[in-house]
Amino acid sequence: MAPLSNLRQGKSSVISKIGDDISGTQRRRLLDLGIYPGATITHCFNSATGEPKAFEVLGSVIALRKEQTDFIFTLED
């Protein structure tokens, strides 16, 4: 497993786990957006400052900050 923050731009991976450090409403929001184990996620692009980063999941593009992507784990390529 590797954190989502390590996924290179243009690459896709499968989410394997959401860490216990993400809980409560933040965890619920991620699940509602389609970020759950088994979902495929693609790193689309970075903002001009490098953060947040844009990811595509379930046909939608969402922005996530490093504080979140450090605790979302994907299967390594």
Task: Explain how this protein is built.
The protein is globular, with a radius of gyration of 11 Å. The protein has a six-stranded antiparallel sheet with strand order 1-6-2-3-4-5. β3 (40-46) and β4 (53-57) form a beta hairpin. The chain has helices spanning 24-32, 66-69; strands at residues 2-3, 12-18, 40-46, 53-57, 60-64, 72-74. The chain is an alpha+beta fold and 77 residues long. 22% of the residues are buried. The protein has one domain (2-74): Roll (SH3 type barrels). The protein has two helices and six strands. The model has no long low-confidence stretch (mean pLDDT 94). The N and C termini lie close together (9 Å). Helices cover 17% and strands 38% of the residues.
